Structures are given as structure tokens and as C-alpha cells.
Amino acid sequence: MKVTLKHKLLLSLILACSYPAFADNHEHHHQQQTAVATPSTDSVFNITDNWTAANGNTFQLSAFGGKPTVIAMVYTSCQYVCPLTVQNIKRIERSLSAAQAANANFALFSLDPERDTPAKLAEFATLHNITNPSWTLAQGNAGSIRKLAVTLGVKYKKVDSGDYEHDATIFILDKDGVVKYQADAMSKNMNGASDALKALLK
Amino acid sequence: MSSNKLKLISLLALPAALIYGAAVSAEEMVMIPQGSFTPFFLKKDSVSSNAASKVKVAAFWIDAAPVNNREFQAFVSHHPDWHPTNIKKIFSDAHYLDHWKSAQGADGTADLDTANPDAPVVNVSWFAAAAYCEAQDKRLPSTDEWEYTLNDNDRDKENLQKQIIRWYSVPNRAPLSVKGQPANGFGVFDLAGLIWEWTADFNSYMAPPDSRNSGDKTQFCGSGSLSASNLDDYAAFMRYSYRESLKGSFTGKNLGFRCAKDAK
Q1: Is there a contact between A26 and B247 if contact means CB atoms under 8 Å apart?
Q2: pLDDT per position as a tens digit, A81-114
């Protein structure tokens, strides 16, 4: 951990000292993002890859249109982080009234295209007592998974054991598929995420 | 005398064989044979764990040179979704293909007027690069594949590192045409000296395989970490750090790409 921190610090130092080659376009992002007001081009629904749900149905991300959606990328063989992520999404769900919960989508996208077949995802849903039809568990292929992860900003890497090192983040999308809120999936406090979702449900 | 002659011939013939002996397909891809290399972040101070710290790479094809402006323009004209006036904001920042915008571009057109057609295309996001490769029935190379290609089986390692560091220390400028410098031992051009390149999994962790045994629960299928134990390969450290700093929608004046393909 110490080593990690030290290098992260070193890294930010290097970046901050702005080696000429690093002085790239993305310094100006902030201003531009506020200046342009075309929300639909911001939407993850622009990704048109196909996914397979635990019930075998094929769908695209735009299927979540019309309702806000809570999304996380997990894999079912994951022992620690992913179950915690699911528990935290369920905490967000429980913070809603029944009517509100019916007006939101909850979606888990697997990082593990080989092992997480629809059947395996259905098994995982049962194990975690996920019965509400507003939940979707999805299998993609390596390309669609990478594209969604890059879009959301989820870093991950498959390691030799077949497991995945990955960011644990819960994302909240509005009904148009624009990311509105991100929560650390390891946090004990989901109040911010709940409030963000409730605001989108108003 | 004759033995001297022989020596001379083999001296001449060896590099040529390394460069021209590589398989090159019609679309100017180079076959990179399977092998392994040690990325800088897996280098250990102890020599004992050498074998474990190698990354294996299966054989693959890679473009001999970065994709240039001419090639990318042909793609854009066939795929209007990726024209600067149409590109979705989620797929690129506002600087997409900035170097194509001509001085009189009030009508919103973007073309090659101001760009060298033979220079690598830059100011392209990861999404645009990935879409280009897909359209050619190719894909972006993985970080491991790209680094393995640069590593060049450690051929001429010291010179390569010096060359890279020298390049890193020069301020940004418009990249020169591709293939201006000799190819490396695999027959691949311009891995260093012109541009930085996107990889398919630039958003990976630099995770050593044993990080999950470190006892830190949050690293277990959570966050990996950079645990380089020495920084002798400073140039590589810079590359991995740069990739780590990117997001898929970012563009850069010196950030381009090349495509790859499975060896099948």
C-alpha cells in the first residue's frame, strides 16, 4: 500500500509538472462541457452493442430509456467487492418507496464474459434474492464490456487467475442515459446516491 | 580473408533479415510471433521470481505504421457518424480532428487541407480509434501487445530507451510522416518518436498478479495498484502513467493509434 501511495503521488507530481508531451487537450474539458448543451449526445444510449439478460433476452442500453438507472459492473465469481456492490444497490433500492422503485432500473453488467452466462447470472440473482423485475443482469462480449467500461470510466484488468481487478463504482443515469451521479461502491453510506436517484424520480 | 568477408556479409544480412523477414500482409500488417516480456511494473529487485513476472503474448498482427490522416479521412467519409460535425459528445471531446479544421472552416467542414496526409492521425478519441479498427475488421492492440511490440525482444534496448526519453523531452509539435525512421526488429515503424498510441485496454490497472495476496481486502477484485519496485524503465513508467491519465473521450495533439488483429 505504501508503495502504491508513493507512486500515485509521484505520478501526480509528474503529471502536475506537465511534461510537454502530457500537455494535451483535455486540460480544457470543463469549460467545454458546460458550454455545449446537447444532452442527448452525452448519453450512454449512443452505444449500440447487444447484451444478453439473465432471462436470455437480447437488449441494448437504450432499453433503459424513460427511467433512471442504477448501474454497476461486477462479476459473479467475485468474493468480496461485488457482493458488497450489490448490497449497496439494494440499499439504494430500499430507500425508495415501492412506486419509486418501480420507476427505476437496476442493472449489473458482468465483466466476465466467459463465466457469467445468463444461467450463471440468474443463479447469482437468486443467491442475492434479486426478484424485482426492475433488475437486469447482463452478459456482453469482451468488446462491448470494454466499451461500456471506457464510457463509464471503469478500470479493470483480467488477471492470470481468471479474476478481474476492477473499480467498484455505482453509477446513476437519468432517463436519457446521461450519467448523473457516481458513488464509491465500497462506501457504507449510500445517502448521496439515494438522494440523487430520488431527485431523478421526481 | 574469406572469413572476414563472411563476417561482413552476415553483419549486413542479419538486420535486413530481421526487418524484411517479418511477414507483411497486403494491408501492411506485421505478424508478431508469440512470446513474452516483462513490463516495468512487474520487474522485481529479486531475481528469483523472474519467470513469474513475464507477461505472455499470443501471436497477432499489428499495423506496420500508425493510421495516417489519409486513411482516417477515407474512414470518416464512409462513416459520417465519425465526422467532426456528427460525433457524439460521449464519444469524443470538442477537439476531435482539430488539426483538420481549415482556416476558413466556417461551414463546419473538416478536411485534410491543413494536415499532412502521411502523418499519423491525431486528435482522435479511443471510441473513434476503436470504430476505425472495427471498420477494417481489426481491433486496437492490447496494452500488452503494444508494449511487447515496442519491447522488440530487448533488441537494442538501451538505444531505444534513450531515443524514447529524448522524444519525451521535446515539446509537442505536429507529427511528421509515418515511416520516416527505420522499423524495429519486428518490422514495425514509429512506435516511439511521433505519437502516443491508444490501446484497447488503456483503462487497465498495472496490476501485478500477486497484488491480491497483499492482504488488503479492497484490492481483492477491487483496485489494483502500481507497485513498481524500481523505476529504471522510466520511459515505460511515463507511458503507463499517460494511459492511466486518459479517458475514452479524450483527444490529444500527439495521441493516435494503430490497429491489430488476432493471428488466426
Answers
A1: yes
A2: 889 999 999 999 999 999 999 999 999 999 999 9
